[in-house]
């Protein structure tokens, strides 16, 4: 019988099985695309991870400003807006208002102005401020400068690397496309050639008792597999914002039609009607019974002479899909139309859900926790992947530098 040493020498002398052309291309794509996009993927993933619980953390930081002692009757919305406008100043007109059905919440009045000619976020965002008002007394409870808020900055790093959207978002968008390719090529590389117990253990388990290199390899390989489906969903929903063509493709796939929905146009007609309740208050009061089972009522007041007041409601603190929108004449407070979510087609509904799917809010707290964990794993993949590549490079350099034994001559 051959000894174990003899068998090993014989096996070592055999040439290794050559990779197929497809597998070679997959390996090269995964390597070079990963190296090219790794830093941006790391930044996008970390900021996405941080942003998931921005509402909860902001509410904790601004708890005193955001909460009030409930009383019997709220003041008219127009009166509260006047108080907020006075606090902001006449040069910062209020563009949106968020009112709450929860009795202990302050109402928020927001002013925003952008400068699309600037290069960076801090130049693009001229101002982005809100005033919080006690709805029972009209007292200003706080003021938040969202331009310099930590999570606003995190959001815009995630959105466009703190650059103007037209410059930064294509970089983020194409890096996300590359990340999708990396997930797919990674799955092909992960797939075992034979499904034995040893390959299953290697593919599905992290060998925590092994050395650092093996643990790092398992973290990249195994966690990459487990996070694949959710990571794909997060990446694809991000691409909806980055590329109009992709948003259109998602709409067509979900709705089964290439015909875009036609939204009705509503116009306010200036009138010289007699004095009465302010039209904004009339519209807001009329909207309340039509917006059932909502926690937040948003108001976008008309911002130009022919514009209309838009009022709608969100169910829950986190989600943004499922809202009906009511359109009111800004001069009379008369209801002009209603856009109901339930009447939208499947494509419109899916696009409306995009943000809530992206941040995991569509699944409630468990969904947000899952989005947080998967985003963290996605952030780790460029790091563990780079270390695998770097380790192979070091090994190759050491092998090349090893002195060749000289032959003894007679």
Largest sheet: 8 strands, antiparallel
Find the structural class using helix and strand composition.
alpha+beta
Low-confidence stretches: 1-13
**What proportion of the residues form beta strands (DSSP E)?**
5-15%
Question: What characteristic shape results from the CA principal axes?
Answer: elongated
Sketch the topology as an H/E string, one letter per element: HHHHHEEHEEHHHHHHHEEEEHHH
State the end-to-end CA separation: 37 Å
What's the tally of helices?
A: 16
> Please, what is the average pLDDT?
91
The number of strands is: 8
The Rg value, from CA coordinates, equals 29 Å
Question: What's the multimeric state?
Answer: single chain
| Strand adjacency order, main sheet | 4-3-2-1-5-6-7-8
Helix content: 40-55%
Q: What's the structural blueprint in terms of helices and strands?
A:
Layout: H1 4-13, H2 21-51, H3 54-61, H4 63-66, H5 77-88, E1 96-100, E2 107-114, H6 121-124, E3 125-133, E4 140-145, H7 150-160, H8 165-190, H9 197-204, H10 212-226, H11 228-242, H12 244-255, H13 279-287, E5 296-300, E6 308-314, E7 325-329, E8 335-339, H14 346-352, H15 354-358, H16 364-401
Antiparallel strand pairs: 1-2, 1-5, 2-3, 3-4, 5-6, 6-7, 7-8
Helix pairs in contact: 2-7, 2-8, 2-16, 8-10, 8-11, 10-16, 11-12, 12-14
Protein described:
By secondary structure, the protein is of the alpha+beta class. The protein has helices spanning 4-13, 21-51, 54-61, 63-66, 77-88, 121-124, 150-160, 165-190, 197-204, 212-226, 228-242, 244-255, 279-287, 346-352, 354-358, 364-401, and strands at 96-100, 107-114, 125-133, 140-145, 296-300, 308-314, 325-329, 335-339. The chain has an eight-stranded antiparallel beta sheet. Helix 2 packs antiparallel against helix 7 (150-160), helix 10 (212-226) crosses helix 16 (364-401) and helix 11 crosses helix 12 (244-255). The chain is elongated. It starts with a helix and ends in a 9-residue tail after the last helix.
């Amino acid at each position: 019988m051959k000894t174990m040493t003899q068998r090993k020498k014989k096996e070592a002398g055999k040439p290794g099985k050559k990779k197929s052309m497809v597998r070679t291309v997959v390996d090269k794509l995964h390597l070079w695309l990963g190296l090219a996009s790794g830093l941006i993927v790391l930044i996008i993933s970390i900021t996405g991870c941080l942003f998931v619980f921005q509402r909860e953390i902001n509410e904790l930081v601004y708890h005193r400003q955001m909460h009030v002692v409930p009383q019997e009757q709220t003041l008219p919305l127009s009166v509260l807006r006047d108080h907020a406008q006075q606090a902001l100043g006449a040069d910062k007109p209020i563009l949106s208002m968020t009112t709450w059905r929860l009795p202990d919440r302050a109402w928020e009045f927001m002013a925003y102005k952008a400068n699309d000619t600037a290069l960076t976020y801090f130049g693009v965002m001229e101002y982005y401020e809100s005033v919080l008002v006690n709805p029972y007394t009209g007292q200003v409870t706080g003021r938040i400068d969202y331009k310099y808020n930590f999570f606003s900055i995190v959001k815009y790093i995630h959105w466009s690397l703190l650059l103007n959207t037209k410059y930064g978002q294509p970089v983020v968008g194409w890096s996300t496309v590359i990340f999708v390719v990396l997930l797919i090529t990674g799955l092909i590389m992960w797939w075992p050639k034979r499904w034995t117990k040893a390959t299953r253990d290697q593919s599905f388990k992290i060998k925590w008792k092994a050395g650092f290199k093996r643990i790092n390899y398992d973290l990249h390989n195994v966690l990459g597999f487990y996070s694949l489906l959710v990571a794909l969903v997060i990446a694809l929903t991000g691409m909806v914002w980055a590329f109009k063509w992709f948003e259109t493709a998602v709409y067509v796939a979900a709705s089964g039609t290439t015909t875009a929905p036609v939204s009705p146009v509503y116009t306010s007609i200036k009138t010289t009607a007699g004095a009465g309740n302010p039209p904004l208050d009339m519209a807001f009061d009329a909207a309340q019974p039509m917006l059932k089972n909502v926690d937040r009522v948003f108001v976008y007041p008309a911002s130009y002479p022919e514009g209309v007041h838009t009022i709608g409601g969100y169910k829950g603190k986190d989600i943004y899909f499922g809202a009906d929108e009511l359109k009111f004449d800004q001069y009379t407070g008369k209801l002009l139309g209603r856009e109901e979510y339930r009447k939208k087609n499947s494509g419109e509904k899916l696009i409306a859900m995009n943000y809530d799917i992206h941040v995991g809010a569509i699944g409630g707290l468990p969904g947000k926790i899952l989005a947080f964990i998967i985003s963290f794993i996605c952030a780790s993949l460029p790091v563990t992947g780079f270390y695998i590549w770097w380790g192979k490079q070091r090994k190759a350099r050491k092998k090349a530098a090893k002195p060749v034994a000289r032959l003894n001559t007679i």
